[in-house]
C-alpha cells in the first residue's frame, strides 16, 4: 500500500537528491533535503484538507485534481513562481533570471540579496496572516491550551489579525529605516520598499482568502441542494446513491482546491527563500516535497483516517508563524539556513508526539470506562 502510493515520490526523491549532489555537492544535497521536509511539513494540513474534500468528488474529478492539479502545483507554483518573484523584485526578465541562476550565480546571488528585503517583507506578512488567522480562531481541539484559549477569545475582535500584522510591519519598517539612517542613509529607500512589499503581501493574502471563501460558499450552496434532493428522493421512495459531487459542484470544488493549494504552496515557496536563494535547489526541494503532498493526499483518501493525529495541523501553523518571524528578522540580520529548516521540523515532530500521547491517553480512558461494565457483566452471566 505504502509503496504503491508513495512509489513515484520515492523515485523522484532519489533523482532530486542525486541531481542536487551533482549540482552543488553535499551542501546542496542537504539544502534540498531540508526544503523537502519543509514543504512536506508546511503542506501536511493542505493534504488533510485536500483529502477531506477530494473523497466527496467523483472518480473523474479526483483524477483531474491529482493530475492537472499536481502539474499546476509542481510546475506552476514550485518552479515558475520563484522565478517570477526574483524577476519582479530584481526588475529583470524571467528568462534573464533563469539564465543568471544557471550561468552567473554570483550576479544572481547579488540580485537576490538586494531584493531580499522586499521578498522577506512580502512573504513574512503573508505567512504571518495565515498564522494569526489560525491562532485567533476558536477551535474544539487545542494543542497549547494555555496559549490558544486566551488568543481564541481575543480573536473575537474584528480584523485583529490584520491590525497586528500591520503593527508588526510598521515596527519592522521603522527598525529597518533607523538601522539604515545610522549607516549614513544609504538604504533609506529600502525601508519604503519593505513597507510597500509587506502591504502587497497582506493584500495578496486577503485576495486569496476572499477567493477561497467565495468558492467555499458556492460549495456549501451546492451541497445543500444535493442534500435537499436526497431527502426528497427518500420521501418519494426513490433510490438515490450517496452524494458524490460532480458537474458544477465538482468544478467549484476543483477551483477551491486549486486556490487552497496555491496558497499553501505559496507558503513553501516563500519559506524556501529563508533557507536558500538558489533557484535550482529551491525548485528541486519544493518539487520533490510537492510530490509527497500529492501522495499523502491519495493515502489519506484511501485510508479514510484523517483525524488520527489532531495536533499536526497546529504544528504546521506554528511552523508557518516561526518562518514569518524569521523572514522579517532576516531583513536586517542573517540567520543560518539549518536553524530555519530545523525550527519547522521540530515543531511538526513535537505536534506529532503530542498527538500520539493524546491518542494513548484517550485509549486508556476508554479502557478504564469499560472495565467496570465488564466486571459487572461477568457475574450476571454465571
TrEMBL record:
Record flagged with keyword Nucleus: no
Transmembrane portions of the chain: 30-53, 65-90, 118-136, 157-181, 193-215, 242-259, 279-301, 310-329, 335-353
InterPro entries reported for this sequence: DUF475
Signal peptide annotation: none
Keywords: Membrane, Transmembrane, Transmembrane helix
Pfam family, one: DUF475
Transmembrane helix found in the keyword field: yes
Protein name (record): Integral membrane protein
Organism, as annotated: Streptomyces achromogenes
Amino acid at each position: 500500500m505504502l509503496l504503491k502510493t508513495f512509489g513515484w515520490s520515492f523515485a523522484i526523491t532519489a533523482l532530486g537528491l542525486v541531481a542536487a549532489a551533482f549540482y552543488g555537492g553535499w551542501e546542496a544535497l542537504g539544502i534540498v533535503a531540508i526544503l523537502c521536509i519543509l514543504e512536506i511539513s508546511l503542506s501536511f494540513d493542505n493534504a488533510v484538507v485536500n483529502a477531506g474534500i477530494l473523497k466527496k468528488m467523483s472518480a473523474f474529478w479526483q483524477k483531474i485534481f491529482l493530475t492537472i492539479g499536481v502539474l499546476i502545483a509542481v510546475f506552476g507554483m514550485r518552479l515558475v513562481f520563484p522565478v517570477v518573484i526574483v524577476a519582479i523584485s530584481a526588475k529583470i526578465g524571467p528568462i534573464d533570471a533563469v539564465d543568471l541562476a544557471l550561468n552567473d550565480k554570483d550576479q544572481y546571488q547579488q540580485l537576490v540579496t538586494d531584493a531580499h528585503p522586499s521578498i522577506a517583507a512580502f512573504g513574512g506578512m503573508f505567512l504571518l496572516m495565515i498564522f494569526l488567522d489560525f491562532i485567533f480562531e476558536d477551535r474544539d481541539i487545542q494543542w497549547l491550551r494555555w496559549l490558544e484559549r486566551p488568543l481564541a477569545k481575543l480573536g473575537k475582535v474584528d480584523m485583529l489579525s490584520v491590525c497586528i500584522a500591520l503593527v508588526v510591519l510598521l515596527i519592522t519598517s521603522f527598525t529597518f529605516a533607523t538601522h539604515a539612517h545610522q549607516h549614513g542613509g544609504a538604504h533609506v529607500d529600502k525601508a519604503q520598499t519593505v513597507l510597500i512589499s509587506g502591504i502587497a503581501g497582506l493584500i495578496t493574502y486577503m485576495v486569496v482568502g476572499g477567493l477561497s471563501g467565495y468558492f467555499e460558499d458556492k460549495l456549501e450552496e451546492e451541497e445543500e441542494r444535493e442534500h435537499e434532493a436526497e431527502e426528497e428522493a427518500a420521501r418519494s421512495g426513490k433510490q438515490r446513491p450517496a452524494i458524490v459531487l460532480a458537474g458544477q459542484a465538482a468544478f467549484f470544488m476543483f477551483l477551491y482546491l486549486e486556490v487552497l493549494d496555491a496558497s499553501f504552496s505559496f507558503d513553501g515557496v516563500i519559506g524556501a527563500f529563508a533557507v536558500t536563494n538558489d533557484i535550482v535547489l529551491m525548485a528541486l526541494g519544493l518539487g520533490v516535497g510537492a510530490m509527497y503532498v500529492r501522495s499523502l493526499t491519495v493515502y489519506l483518501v484511501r485510508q479514510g483516517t484523517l483525524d488520527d493525529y489532531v495536533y499536526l495541523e497546529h504544528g504546521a501553523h506554528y511552523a508557518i508563524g516561526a518562518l514569518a518571524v524569521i523572514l522579517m528578522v532576516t531583513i536586517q540580520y542573517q540567520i543560518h539556513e539549518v536553524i530555519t529548516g530545523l525550527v519547522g521540523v521540530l515543531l511538526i515532530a513535537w505536534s506529532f508526539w503530542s498527538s500520539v500521547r493524546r491518542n494513548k491517553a484517550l485509549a486508556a480512558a476508554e479502557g478504564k470506562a469499560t472495565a467496570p461494565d465488564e466486571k459487572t457483566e461477568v457475574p450476571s452471566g454465571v
